[in-house]
């Protein structure tokens, strides 16, 4: 199973070359934050402050993140802020499965430096995609009459499936992130 340390990397030179020669073969996912507070996934009820809270403290203020998405982006990239990535990863998996049919061969993840958020999002994406594929396979087997058998081996097991994602669509992380990209 892929980890942040074992994810394949792509250099800014190679990405630049691919963007200039074959932009339709790329899906670039930028997970830098935009400075907005995390959007709640469930409605929250208003809370009264704790009785012993001093007036100058803000107990329920939303966490502010330092914006690092401002200042530009890579042409044709899709912005999926890391604060919302967990709630939108399944939709991203479905979108990129459709794009694979359209010829997208490489999915590039990046954040500011591609040290944590970008690689972490790539690993989450790979795991979510493996779950979606397993669900689709189980559903297909159920519709075919469920003839048991064949559990594990073969093409679909282990590192090959997780490392490259689906055959023909490689998942990589941009070396140096957006900061490294901008330096060139």
Short summary of the structure?
The protein is of the alpha/beta class and 184 residues long.
Textual characterization of the structure:
Helix content is 39%, strand content 10%. It has 184 residues and is of the alpha/beta class. Strands 1-5-4-2-3 form a five-stranded parallel beta sheet. The longest helix has 27 residues. The protein is globular, with a radius of gyration of 20 Å.
What helical percentage do the residues reach? 25-40%
Rg from C-alpha positions? 20 Å
Task: Report the end-to-end length measured between terminal Cα atoms.
Answer: 33 Å
- Sheet having the most strands: 5 strands, parallel
Question: Strands, helices and their partners?
Answer:
Elements: E1 9-10, H1 12-21, E2 26-30, E3 78-79, H2 82-101, E4 106-110, H3 117-143, H4 158-164, E5 170-174, H5 177-183
Parallel strand pairs: 1-5, 2-3, 2-4, 4-5
Primary descriptors:
184 residues; alpha/beta; 5-stranded parallel β-sheet; 5 strands; globular
């Amino acid at each position: 199973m892929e980890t942040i340390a074992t994810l394949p990397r792509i250099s800014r030179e190679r990405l630049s070359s691919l963007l200039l020669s074959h932009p339709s073969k790329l899906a670039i996912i930028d997970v830098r934050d935009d400075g907005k507070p995390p959007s709640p996934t469930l409605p929250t009820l208003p809370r009264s402050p704790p009785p012993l809270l001093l007036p100058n403290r803000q107990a329920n203020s939303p966490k502010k993140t330092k914006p690092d998405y401002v200042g530009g982006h890579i042409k044709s990239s899709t912005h999926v802020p890391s604060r919302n990535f967990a709630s939108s990863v399944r939709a991203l998996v479905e979108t990129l499965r459709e794009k694979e049919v359209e010829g997208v061969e490489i999915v590039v993840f990046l954040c500011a430096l591609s040290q944590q958020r970008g690689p972490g999002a790539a690993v989450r994406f790979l795991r979510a995609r493996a779950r979606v594929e397993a669900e689709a396979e189980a559903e297909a087997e159920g519709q075919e009459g469920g003839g048991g058998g064949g559990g594990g081996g073969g093409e679909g097991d282990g590192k090959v499936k997780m490392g490259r994602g689906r055959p023909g669509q490689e998942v990589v992380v941009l070396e140096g992130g957006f900061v490294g990209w901008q330096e060139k």
